[in-house]
Write the structure tokens for this entry.
Amino acid sequence: MNLFSRIVGNQDNTAQQELAELKARAQKVTKLETTPELIWHHGYKCETHHVDTTDGWTLDLFRVVPVERKQTRKGHRYTDSLASTISSSSSVQSSSLPKNKGPVLIWHGLSTSSTIWVCNPEDSNANMALWLAEQGYDVWLGNTRGTRYSRHRQHEKANSEYWDYCIDDLPKDVEACVDHILADTHRDTLCYIGFSQGTAQMFAALSTIPSLNSKISSFVALAPAIKPKPFRCRPVLALASFTPNILFSILGKGAFMPIAESLRKVAPPTLYQQLISRSMKFLFGWDNHNFVEQSKVGLYSHIFGTCSIKTYVHWFQIILSGEFTRFNQCACWSPGQRLKEMILGRSSSPSTEPSSAEPIPLATEVEVEETTTIVETKSCCTTNKYPLHQITAPVHLFYGSIDLMTDIEYFKSNLPRIDSITKVDNYDHMCFIWAKDVKSTVWTKVLDILENSDMVKTSRQGQVNVKRLLSEDSAVDFDFSERDSISSGSSM
């Protein structure tokens, strides 16, 4: 065997060994159930803060605390008594703790929890929360009411009153956590990073709680979701076509699919991974092609959590109305024409975005007529849109070119200011958390925003009525030197 063959053979052996180690780490992650356990596992300490909302909920708010540790080639290891839980390697070099750059609150999406930010088995820096902590930020992880990290001070989970909440109630969660962090850190402002519904609740909060705007130095919206593009999954649309009262009579008024949480605990991790993969493909067309395959078993073991049925019903209303509206309990709510447009792949506000996602078969005119006839009744209720025009906090949008959950044109038409828009080619919804290249493609740009947030000096009076329309070409790979002109409302 010549030298070249030996080198190639050694490289192959090394690659196989690394894959085997990654699979082992992914399996270990499936056995770690809570956010604090995962944070400790990756070499950090975790503080748990209990935050009370004004309407009876207590939420767990987790704070990532870097500890004095030693740097290795593959992440970190402890220098305290928990060192045995972290794998180490040779060539150890000491590293000092980074300087605190201020608080960052990170929030999860629908039917997930804070675990999604810390469950990637590849290494600590493959998790956004830990990576930002490593850059010197004081990272806090929020949890929405209804997750395992929440409790109601009066109602038990078995009671329907426990689950009587929707998007309209989530601004109270955001406000309580923001105020707690600012009081604890003695700061006037913080940066907020939301994913999916984590962005919707902040848009709702900023538009209905004016005082909150001055407390947010930067709002980074990853895969922002306040009004999805035309939705073509006919089973979901069939459910969404019913009025709230009918849906509640079918689904109940408790938790949405509580069996999923039980199944996660008893099913083999690989089986659960396959179930989640097929469900995401069927419902949303997501194949998560740019994830590290060996990591999926660990990632998907933390992807589904409890949430109220009422929240899902609220999202059904938003999808069919084509507007970011408050919940409408009216029994004669009638989305028939909108449903017909969406099943046929038409939209009253068509997006100019090309989509490379695999097309979902559309229904015929006859099938649509049969589906929508049952809901073509007269509506007696008017929609109550969120007053997005009242938002004054700096907003930065990141969206994927093949993500149907984000209608970027709706944001451009309804937000009074957008400080930057970044389009990421070939990215779907979940890619902003777990794509193999997400750090270099997205997180480094987020870091630029955080570090430059103090450079954005705009008056919070008199400038919020200016409409912003950003072109795609100028928004991608934005230049912070242009931010003054963006904030003042000049066209690009």
Notes: The first strand starts at residue 44 and ends at 52.
